Amino acid sequence: MSDMPLKYKRVLLKISGEALMGSGDFGLDPQIVDRLAAEIASVRELGAEVCLVIGGGNIFRGVSVAAQGMERTTADYMGMLATVMNALAMQSALEKSGIPTRVQSAIPMQTVCEPYIRRRAVRHMEKGRIVIFAAGTGNPFFTTDTAAALRASEMDCDAMLKGTKVDGVYTADPVKDPSAERYERLSYQDVLTRDLKVMDASAITLSRDKGIPILVFSIFAEGAFADVLRGEGRYTVVDGGES
Fold first, then answer.
1. Which residues share a beta bridge with 134?
2. CATH of the domain at 23
3. Alpha carbon separation from 36 to 19, 86, 136, 157, 191 (Å, rounded)
4. Segments of the chain assigned E as strands
């Protein structure tokens, strides 16, 4: 393990719900959840303050269902509930490893988790607890990407990390196109004008306005989370500089 100091001390990690499926087509793979929890725990041990936003696409995708005829607002609320389920699963895995974790939901449901209260979330992080923000922004028509950018801004995070299946942003899907080239660095404007599928436009715009860099890396590469926080390893950084 590198002795390099952390470049980013307080961060938000955004993980898609699909990342929790493993090789399955639906639901949760307990081994994947446990492995991701171990990556998060290792970063916490380095002294980082970590919060998370997890999507719900492994359980329910509101946009897809709305396209099939369901009323969009209802479909989006169902998607928010799916993110709560994923957050509780990750909380269980982290606490099984001895990591104190709190789930805060933008939709109040006190029986299973805390309501989202910014000052309380900040205090949890200062005490070394992992905070998982669930239920998106609490409003329909906004993605969990936007929720991640919003919470990263509210928590005054040094960076927002997007954990994906590949080690950065490419000119095309590297799985489908072996000739795709990886970007080392992009500006927020590059992402918007080139319509690169990093995060949705509202998340990019909010991050730009707050000056929060977005670091895209492979969440499945062992030790990559810690490497990125030190400014090492393979990742693409999206910030205010020129590409």
1. 105
2. 3.40.1160.10
3. 9, 12, 20, 20, 27
4. 10-15, 49-54, 101-105, 114-115, 130-134, 159-164, 169-170, 182-183, 185-187, 214-218, 236-239
Detail the DSSP E strand segments found in 136-209. Answer: 159-164, 169-170, 182-183, 185-187
- Position 174 in a domain: yes
Q: Which residues constitute the domain of residue 116?
A: 10-239
Distance CA 121, CA 128 (A): 11
Number of domains, the chain: 1
Q: Could you tell me if residue 94 is inside a domain? A: yes
Q: Is residue 115 part of a domain?
A: yes
Model confidence pTM above 0.90: yes
- Residue 91 maps to a domain: yes
pLDDT(62) > 80? no
Which residues are bridge partners to 114 per DSSP? 104
Q: Which residues contact 8 (CB under 8 A, 6 or more apart)?
A: 48, 158, 159, 215, 228, 229, 231
**CA nearest neighbour of 16 among 221, 205, 220:** 220
The reported pLDDT for the residue numbered 184 is: 95
Average pLDDT of span 150-156: 98
pLDDT interval class at 175 (50, 70, 90):
confident
